[in-house]
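> call design_seq(struct)
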């Protein structure tokens, strides 16, 4: 598996699992009824951010996007988002993408990295981010409408780089 910058041609390979994860509704608050076209600018970051794929030959196993969390005076704090194809989860792809994003942000000179909205019931992701050095700063109560659990909290997770 290699992690490399995503090109426009990769979006068609990301979209099937992106749309599946968004439709499941358990981990991200994206607009409803996204299409291949309308979702592309939401995931494919432009400079100074970037989107990467974890790939094995032509197969895209997962993807991450990263860049400044806020413009202007907030631009020294990075953020990132991650999606691994459900068919390839639990095989170390998410951990490799997480490590990559942290190293990318450090090398780019960011001061810290913040995840704005980690769904508290997404315990696999929470323990992965913790193991990569993030702490939960706070939890916004009842901020995410989970399809099975109802209103659950969103963690703000942070690490200084
Ligand atoms: C969260 C996600 C990116 C993790 O990617 P992954 O490839 O499945 O994760 P990995 O195989 O690299 O697992 C890494 C760690 O995650 C944790 N983990 C993963 N699934 C878990 C689960 N069901 N329960 C507990 N821990 C879990 C473990 O700590 C694991 O540690 P290990 O490496 O010591 O085994 C992926 O599951 C995903 O895309 N989920 C849907 C979208 C999402 O939740 N994105 C993140 C939003 S914050």
């Amino acid at each position: 598996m290699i992690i490399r910058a995503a090109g426009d041609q990769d979006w068609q390979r990301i979209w099937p699992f992106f749309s599946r994860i968004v439709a499941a509704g358990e981990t991200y608050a994206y607009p409803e009824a996204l299409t291949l076209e309308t979702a592309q600018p939401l995931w494919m970051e432009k400079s100074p951010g970037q989107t990467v794929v974890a790939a094995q030959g032509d197969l895209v196993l997962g993807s991450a996007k990263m860049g400044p969390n806020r413009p202007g005076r907030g631009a020294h704090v990075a953020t990132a988002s991650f999606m691994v194809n459900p068919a390839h989860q639990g095989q170390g792809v998410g951990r490799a993408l997480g490590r990559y994003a942290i190293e990318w942000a450090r090398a780019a000179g960011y001061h810290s990295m913040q995840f704005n909205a980690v769904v508290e019931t997404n315990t696999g992701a929470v323990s992965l981010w913790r193991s990569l050095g993030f702490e939960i700063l706070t939890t916004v109560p009842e901020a995410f409408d989970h399809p099975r659990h109802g209103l659950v909290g969103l963690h703000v997770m942070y690490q200084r780089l």
